[in-house]
């Protein structure tokens, strides 16, 4: 693996940890004994929106990796679909079962059968159902991106930067239209915020795809510049309107900074000649499992410190709980990867090997 891709694997793992910190701080700071130790760290994490930074890094990495892997492997779409299915769904379904169980045990929350069935598809938000775990919305965005890449691959458009740019602008245009409809006084459209944000996430992924195209070919840099400028001008516009006392976001600084920081981190990791930290690359390998299962570790910790016998574990500064939650999430993610995710990845690879190679696919 090249140094560049190894560094992106490190970034994938660190992005998962940022999401863990965001959710952990939101959960534990609600405990009075922890809050009285000081809320500065929680405020810092919240103001920078570590979770959104991590998610945007995931989106840029997906754009950088997925289209190129489709083209480089030059396999039929059936093979790609099989591998993606076994890479994503079995581990996701296990996390869904655990999330439903924990919601019932700790929160006395029962999801309807139709909600559960909709969540098995990863498309529940588009179908009008709530996410059993809020973080599942990002998987819907990823799945849509995979489908768009597959369609462009079948139409022989995935190697053409102008079509990657058009796809980026298409996602951006849809995002803007949805936001305008949402804020229109006469609008009857009231989409969940995560659904309205998905087209923007798609645009970000195609930015990553164009950056990879430029890196591989050293040509057509203007397409990547146009994509990045148009996509990341949105958070700059939000921030500028805020300074002009015409805010269109409840938290404009938080929204803008999270996007710009994520882009900056990605560009530094992907394009500067940094020596990879190989030991941290393992976090990238298990990042999907960390992402899906970290809330289980967080809520179990919360339950322990809320018990009469668990008061001995309460009252420490927030940083202690973030450290323990991070370690617990990594351990749980490693176990899930070892016993669930990796075996199904291997199964997907073995099932896709028998698929015949395409003839002049590109």
TrEMBL record:
Keyword Transmembrane assigned: yes
Keywords for the protein's UniProt record, in alphabetical order: Acyltransferase, Membrane, Transferase, Transmembrane, Transmembrane helix
InterPro entries, alphabetized: Acyl_transf_3_dom, Acyltransferase_3
Domain Acyltransferase per the UniProt entry, residue ranges: 7-335
Keyword Transferase: yes
An annotated Gene Ontology molecular function: acyltransferase activity
TM region(s), chain numbering: 53-71, 92-111, 135-154, 163-181, 193-211, 223-244, 256-274, 286-306, 318-340
Highest rank taxon of the organism: Bacteria
EC number(s) recorded for this UniProt protein: 2.3.-.-
Pfam families per the UniProt record, alphabetical: Acyl_transf_3
Matching PANTHER family: ACETYLTRANSFERASE, ACYL_TRANSF_3 DOMAIN-CONTAINING PROTEIN
Protein name: Acyltransferase family protein
Organism listed in the record: Microbulbifer epialgicus
Upper classification of the organism: Bacteria, Pseudomonadati, Pseudomonadota, Gammaproteobacteria, Cellvibrionales
